[in-house]
Design brief:
alpha/beta, Rossmann fold, 2 domains, six-stranded parallel sheet, 12 helices, 14 strands, about 45% helix, binds nicotinamide-adenine-dinucleotide
Length: about 325
């Protein structure tokens, strides 16, 4: 079995995935052993008061280093990033945060002999030339967004640290992540989360991609499970490191609206594609994740129906408490 992680730093911990990952890691490894770090706070008291929180800007290497030293960190889950839609608005910022930030994390990990680093990638590494159904594990990667460019470079940089310095860097290509705790941070698949909030709050949603747009998605419990399972996997079984394809479910925006209507029959949805449609059109529809299945026994649990049931139930309860 791999050496157990003891003291963990989560960068970008206030974000959509970081906030729920931090909670899950605190449950497993002890609240005081998991340091949440971000440049902003999260409105959830659970994250802010559930264990240590530090202001860490990942573009400032000394801030990462200070947290690693202060808390005797041995593992970093590096979730800080600029996502696809915001990246297209601010490409220079996307490069700085996604590339300089990752390099800083890897350098601090190398210099302080850390045990392991998690560096997430994305289906954004694929481009219009990728076979879309399903996207293979190792096609030529020619993305058309700056976000995708940073994710391809990030995978390669992680692999370089594995082979050149023996640092244990691991990562998956997340599909669009759907969740009920923290809102997404400016990606192309945000519609698949926003639609639930608008359906419950207003009974209507204007979706920014076409009704027939099919993208790979995953429900947050599967995302957290995949992240923790890979980081706890026996490293001797891994032939891939930073670029595992990961599949959950695939559906069109229209099918998602239809599934929500089974719970909320009066819900209406119109489709008005904006610039994000171009990004969506450059990504595959489904993913071949056989490498993850073979090397660390990955299996997704949620499909469109079970995810929708759970999202509606959780968000309805939040709405009743006035916390949506
Ligand atoms: N959510 C998805 O659907 C999805 C899909 C594919 C890949 N990913 C990847 O997963 C990771 C986490 O994504 P997320 O959805 O939680 O993103 P998010 O936008 O919700 O959160 C990112 C966090 O990073 C923080 N951040 C931004 N700049 C920073 C800086 N300079 N220093 C420190 N923190 C900074 C933000 O404040 C934010 O809290 C990212 O690497 C992202 O590319 C996410």
């Amino acid at each position: 079995m791999p050496e157990r992680m003891q003291r963990i730093l989560v960068t970008g911990a206030a974000g959509q995935i970081g906030s729920e990952l931090t909670a899950a890691l605190r449950e497993r490894y002890g609240a005081q052993n998991v340091v949440a770090a971000d440049i902003r706070e999260n409105r959830s008291a659970k994250l802010m008061e559930g264990g240590p929180f530090e202001h860490v800007d990942v573009t400032q290497r000394e801030q990462i280093e200070a947290a690693v030293i202060e808390y005797r960190v041995d593992t970093i889950f590096h979730m800080a990033a600029i996502l696809s839609a915001v990246g297209e608005e601010k490409p220079q910022l996307a490069w700085r945060v996604n590339m300089t930030g990752l390099l800083n994390v890897l350098e601090v990990a190398r210099e302080h002999n850390l045990l392991r680093v998690f560096s997430p990638s994305s289906i954004a590494v694929f481009g219009p030339e990728t076979p879309p159904d399903p996207a293979p594990q190792a096609p030529p990667l020619r993305p058309t967004t700056i976000y995708g460019v940073t994710k391809v470079a990030g995978e390669l940089l992680g692999e370089y640290y594995v082979h050149r310095f023996g640092l244990d860097v691991r990562g998956v290509r997340y599909p669009g992540i759907i969740s009920s705790e923290t809102l997404p941070g400016g990606g192309t698949t945000d519609y698949a989360v926003e639609i639930f909030y608008k359906a419950l709050q207003e009974g209507h949603y204007t979706c920014f991609v076409r009704e027939d747009t099919v993208l790979p998605m995953m429900y947050m419990p599967d995302c957290i499970k995949a992240t923790m399972d890979l980081m706890e996997a026996d490293g001797t079984r891994l032939t891939h490191h930073c670029d595992f394809n990961l599949a959950g479910m695939s559906f069109s925006a229209g099918e998602l609206a239809e599934e929500i209507r089974k719970h909320l029959p009066d819900f209406t949805c119109e489709f008005k594609p904006d610039k994000r449609q171009d990004i969506a059109d450059s990504w595959p529809h489904s993913i071949d994740d056989s490498a993850a299945r073979e090397e660390w026994d990955w299996r997704a649990s949620y499909d469109l129906r079970s995810m929708t049931d759970d999202m509606i139930s959780r968000l309805s309860k939040k709405l009743e408490r006035g916390k949506l």
